[in-house]
């Protein structure tokens, strides 16, 4: 996606659940031991159109056939702070600037809601995502957390002043 193209986002709806699980399955396929678990780890994607905590929003964008090809979520866990979640771009759509466009859209929304700081956690295995975050001005801190999930995930903490 070039900078000149407009990103078409919409709020996720419950009908997107299957596409979202497919999206994550495709994204996780390149990472051995990384699994999609709707029962424990990804409960929020069972009904993606449901209200989210902390004034959160889950956005999706579709490919030319109307299938969800990328998503991003934001919520506001504390005053002046927004948290980016669920940034996923289907592998056949990667490398086109879609991830960057999604992050910038989330940042714009966060600023409009009064956030002055953006934070996120990213699986230690997602090195391409880490490069993207650093390119967009995020700093990786020394904070690390283990999730104790089916994928045995550990995550790095990133932050940025908006």
UniProtKB/TrEMBL annotation:
Cited CDD domains: NAT_SF (cd04301)
Pfam families, sorted: Acetyltransf_1 (PF00583)
Keyword Acyltransferase: yes
Residue stretches making up the N-acetyltransferase domain: 7-162
GO molecular function: acyltransferase activity, transferring groups other than amino-acyl groups
Matching PROSITE patterns: GNAT (PS51186)
InterPro entries for the chain: Acyl_CoA_acyltransferase (IPR016181), Bact_Acetyltransf (IPR050832), GNAT_dom (IPR000182)
Keywords associated with the record: Acyltransferase, Transferase
Name of the protein in its database record: Putative acetyltransferase
Species, as recorded: Microvirga guangxiensis
Lineage of the species this protein comes from: Bacteria, Pseudomonadati, Pseudomonadota, Alphaproteobacteria, Hyphomicrobiales
């Amino acid at each position: 996606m070039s900078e000149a193209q407009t990103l078409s986002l919409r709020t996720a709806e419950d009908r997107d659940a299957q596409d979202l699980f497919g999206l994550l399955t495709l994204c996780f396929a390149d990472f051995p031991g990384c699994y999609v678990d709707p029962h424990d780890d990804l409960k929020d994607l069972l009904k993606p159109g449901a209200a989210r905590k902390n004034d959160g929003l889950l956005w999706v964008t579709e490919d030319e056939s109307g299938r969800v090809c990328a998503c991003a979520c934001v919520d506001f866990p504390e005053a002046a702070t927004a948290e980016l979640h669920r940034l996923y771009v289907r592998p056949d759509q990667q490398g086109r600037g879609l991830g960057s466009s999604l992050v910038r859209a989330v940042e714009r929304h966060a600023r409009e809601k009064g956030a002055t700081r953006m934070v996120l956690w990213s699986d230690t295995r997602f090195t391409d995502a880490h490069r993207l975050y650093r390119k967009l001005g995020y700093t990786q801190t020394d904070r690390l957390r283990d999730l104790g999930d089916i994928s045995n995930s550990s995550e790095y903490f990133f932050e940025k002043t908006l």
